[in-house]
Amino acid sequence: MQSFTGVGVSPGRIVGSVRQMPKAVSEPPAGEQLASSTTAEDAAVTLRAAAKAVQAELKQRSVSATGAGKSVLEATALMAADPMLIKGAVKLINTGTSAERAIWESAASVAEMLHNLGGYMAERATDVLDVRARIVAELRGVPAPGIPASDEPFILVADDLAPADTATLNPAVVLALVTSGGGPQSHTAIIARALGLPAVVAAVGVESITDGTAVYVDGAAGSITVDPDADQLEAATAWAANAATLAVFSGEGAMADGHLVPLLANVGGAADAVKAAAAGAQGVGLLRTEFCFLDRDEEPTLDEQVTAYRGVFDAFPGKKVVVRTLDAGADKPLPFLTDASEPNPALGVRGYRTDFTSPGVLKRQLAAVATAAEGTEADVWVMAPMISTAEEAADFARMCGEAGLKNPGVMVEVPSAALTAETILGEVNFASLGTNDLTQYAMAADRQLGPLAALNTPWQPAVLRLIQLTVAGSVAEGNNKPVGVCGEAAADPALAVVLVGLGVNTLSMTARALAAVAAVLAKVTVVEAQRLAGIALAAPSALEARARVRAELPILDELGL
Amino acid sequence: MSERNATIASRVGLHARPAAIFAEAVGALPVEVTIALEGDPADDAMDASSILSLMSLGAANGQVVVLRAEGDGADEALAGLVTILETDLDAE
């Protein structure tokens, strides 16, 4: 029985058949000529036919798509057979260039033109290159790049998924995600957790599994087994039965001894917030405000922002909503705020730091939050991302005060903030640990890199130590200022227990994880959690920390988490 | 040669969905239609059935464009296209 091991990033046990994500289309060699057996006329006809076929395929997919994904597919379908694109290619074919090379070059010049127009047009350049790859694949007779279109459910195996793949990933058809690259914080992991799909990343060798092979995936254990045995089939059936109970959260997070741990949701807009409220979330621990700013060439107006924030506040009357101010930069560039040419964007002008280079945007955002908060019943808190010093925390608190916002706080993502939590909390009212970035910075390991996946987990004892120091800083400050976690770590039920044991007050996560985290916390006392936190802190490695804590929590295996 | 002016009604200008709807409508016509910004020379006019050309034209909300077509049915074709451009397609 062949098996593969990776990092489990989203729980679930499932059996299904594999579909490999086709490899990226390689560039036809420069100067590639028409085959001597082909005339330019024939090549042009073949190219037009291939373009029409790609257009038909995209158009058909747009029929079943919804929302933003639908309009993107409709527009790309038109681009596939666009006269500008095809005429440019036919011109090259007439000079003896092969059809593949001709469309490659024609699309490159169109993409460059769009890129030079800047802003919205520059973003569409990617669509032209996507269409080009599809046409070349069609000409070569190989599968189109991207997630395979299929009516039969399958387990998707890929190198890694990009944010753009989310638009075409149909959770009704994709049963689980397995990637050979990526890490626990990669886009694949985030997409999987948001959709509630079992997922294993950094599983070396899975690219060799042939399409149609039956495999068993355990998203908690991080394993993939070819030709599953009877026990595994049974485990998958049991998971399906359990999944129903794990989907319901009572609306109050509590430990076995009655100690309350409010469980909140991370949301990125009003639609998300409504879903999170329906899932029983006790508030919003992280409102990502980027949704209002991304895909924009200019800063949204005050009114636009107010409407967007109010939509979220209205979903949580009487509950806490923690707004994170704009977190642009690094993997979330914004044309009007961030400098794309920074050599090291993760260490660059991002998060709160954009206020140094583009003052005014943050001030206007705070004014919009304050206006949106007026007249709603939500308890609005505001925090700044990427705070490194107490001085920055004080400046942010002053700006909040000027905007009339009473509850300023900071994200603890930079190790310096964890180390100086006592003085930082002297300036603001609360701290929220962003474990994804805290891990990346503590371990000096890029979140997106597969080869660094082992370093990039919040189970690293060093990261747990920084969390412990943040809580200790709050205790030393003396005013019981709350410390929460709003990173992906809070969505891992075993790690949630450790976080409570370290003294964290609230946990905020993707709404899908609420029920599973609540189910596990309910079986553990605070004293027990403290003991498990001690075990994790003392472990020699992240892997050992996770294994030792999980061994003490039999409930995880019972529930398949 | 028939010629008609139209003012772009879509809030985002002639991109994305409005451009797609317009290009598709032009593609379905029996005549070839060109589009240019008002004041630009007719020689610089672009193929109106090309969504990529429309995007590179970059006509914003409130800008006036010139549509041109030749042959049988050109007048009727342009009248229909003017209606599309002067409707706020985002609002639908």
TrEMBL record, chain A:
GO molecular function, one term: phosphoenolpyruvate-protein phosphotransferase activity
Any one of the GO CC terms: cytoplasm
Keyword Electron transport in record: no
Catalytic reaction list: L-histidyl-[protein] + phosphoenolpyruvate = N(pros)-phospho-L-histidyl-[protein] + pyruvate
Sequence ranges assigned to domain Phosphotransferase system enzyme I N-terminal in this UniProt record: 5-124
PEP-utilising enzyme C-terminal domain: residues covered: 255-524
Residues binding phosphoenolpyruvate, per UniProt: R288, R324, N436, D437, R447
Main localization (coarse): cytoplasm
EC numbers, comma separated: 2.7.3.9
Catalytic site: H187, C486
Pfam families given in the database record: PEP-utilisers_N, PEP-utilizers, PEP-utilizers_C
Chain coiled-coil ranges: none
Function: General (non sugar-specific) component of the phosphoenolpyruvate-dependent sugar phosphotransferase system (sugar PTS). This major carbohydrate active-transport system catalyzes the phosphorylation of incoming sugar substrates concomitantly with their translocation across the cell membrane. Enzyme I transfers the phosphoryl group from phosphoenolpyruvate (PEP) to the phosphoryl carrier protein (HPr).
Family: Belongs to the PEP-utilizing enzyme family.
The protein, known as: Phosphoenolpyruvate-protein phosphotransferase
Organism from which the protein derives: Cryobacterium adonitolivorans
Gene that produces this protein: ptsP
From TrEMBL, chain B:
Organism: Cryobacterium adonitolivorans
Gene Ontology cellular component terms for the protein in this record: cytoplasm
Principal subcellular localisation of the protein: cytoplasm
Protein name: Phosphocarrier protein HPr
One protein family per Pfam: PTS-HPr
Assigned keywords, A-Z: Cytoplasm, Phosphotransferase system
Domain of life, per lineage: Bacteria
GO biological process: phosphoenolpyruvate-dependent sugar phosphotransferase system
CDD domains the UniProt entry points to: PTS-HPr_like
Reported function: General (non sugar-specific) component of the phosphoenolpyruvate-dependent sugar phosphotransferase system (sugar PTS). This major carbohydrate active-transport system catalyzes the phosphorylation of incoming sugar substrates concomitantly with their translocation across the cell membrane. The phosphoryl group from phosphoenolpyruvate (PEP) is transferred to the phosphoryl carrier protein HPr by enzyme I. Phospho-HPr then transfers it to the PTS EIIA domain.
Domain HPr positions: 1-92
Protein localization: Cytoplasm
UniProt signal peptide: none
